[in-house]
């Protein structure tokens, strides 16, 4: 495995505000990685900033495949086991829908990572699953203008 000497995205974002160009570049790298993984039938199921590593050239690497699994690449890849971090969890996971589409759950987590890259804070913060779910389905989000300059 390649050594990611610049740590993880979570730690990096505690020190730095990303530019629009950085956000765009890193989002594309994340999308390419997940396009490949989903194309070969792998779902991550625990994407979060702590699981995105930065190489010496500040390229991204997806890490921690402990909850990953192979799924049917057909139209209905389904999963029943919930394994994720609440802040990055899709509404269907917090609501308790089973089975769920793990590809869609990965896509939701990518959206949360994008929001965090733009704002340096997660879109939904709370300690309780039901409170996070309520916020997910009832509020609108605003992206920081600072990130888009």
TrEMBL record:
It comes from the Eukaryota. Gene3D superfamilies: Transferase(Phosphotransferase) domain 1. It holds the Pfam family Pkinase. GO terms for molecular function: ATP binding; tau-protein kinase activity. Keywords: ATP-binding, Kinase, Membrane, Nucleotide-binding, Serine/threonine-protein kinase, Transferase, Transmembrane, Transmembrane helix. The chain crosses the membrane at residues 103-121. Residues 1-149 form the Protein kinase domain. The keyword GTP-binding does not apply. GO terms for biological process: intracellular signal transduction; microtubule cytoskeleton organization. PROSITE patterns: PROTEIN_KINASE_DOM, PROTEIN_KINASE_ST. InterPro entries: Kinase-like_dom_sf, Prot_kinase_dom, Ser/Thr_kinase_AS. The keyword Cell inner membrane does not apply. One of its GO terms (cellular component) is cytoplasm. This is Protein kinase domain-containing protein. It comes from Macrosiphum euphorbiae. The lineage of its organism: Eukaryota, Metazoa, Ecdysozoa, Arthropoda, Hexapoda.
